[in-house]
Write a structure and sequence with these properties.
- This protein has helices spanning about 30-35, 60-75, 90-100, 125-130, 140-150, 155-160, 180-185, 185-190, 220-225, 240-245, 245-265; strands at about 5-10, 15-20, 40-45, 80-85, 105-110, 165-170, 170-175, 205-210, 230-235.
- The chain has about 270 residues and is of the alpha/beta class.
- The protein is globular and about 55 Å long.
- The relative contact order is 0.16.
- InterPro entries: AB_hydrolase_1, AB_hydrolase_fold.
Length: about 270
Amino acid sequence: MALHTMRIGSGVPRVAYLHGLLGQGKNLATIAKAVSATDPGVLIDLPNHGRSPWTSTFGYADWADDVAAELRALLPPGVPITVFGHSMGGKTAMALALRHPTLVRALVVADIAPDDSSHGYGFARLVNGLRTLPLDQVSTREDADALLAPTVPDPGVRAFLLQNLHRAKPEGWRWLPHLDLLARSLPLISGWPAGLRGPYLGPVLWLRGGESGYVTDDHVPAMRALFPRTRLVTIKGAGHWLHADQPDAVAATLQAFLDTLRPQLGR
């Protein structure tokens, strides 16, 4: 299954970016562009999101294998890549590193832990808000925004969600994500698959938003058991979408981490 990708910068990609639930690869474009002069990137739409194909089931191991196949098609043989993943994309990135360690040069995990995250933002409400939106009443994006507002009062979150609304001619408006699959898979998405074993021995940058509750000190032992070379950095003033709340701080922290990899790898 070929996933939709977009390249940032020139040359062989050094960083692959995996978005969160109801996101798209382009959500991480600002971060990717900020480091692209030294580390070109590739933005990936995960399965059932953006312009990538839909599937009939969800599983982090399956998604990790799909991403691995896409990366092997993009990269020269034997060349590894740093993988940046946010939230659901962070869990996919962790699964990728554990299942395909020789493909992953280093790992950046943004505001998620290898644990249950169902306590978080309330994605069931967001997914169901999109599923129940009456698209037959939508003529413009402004209509969709107004209809979604009672369920999602935050205009910034609505704007993020409505990036998933696509006008297809002659069919009319449709959602890019496979909302029915995502809705019934939410317990798996918020969980962590028990069958994934470590450790992954590459370097890991673990970012958390200072105003987010997704990553706490209680998660550190589980993270270090799977990823012993983890370094935890808190991004002050950032919530769960830390790359949107504090893009400069996230980009600077990522660039500093990437810079440490070059002498180590002779690049």
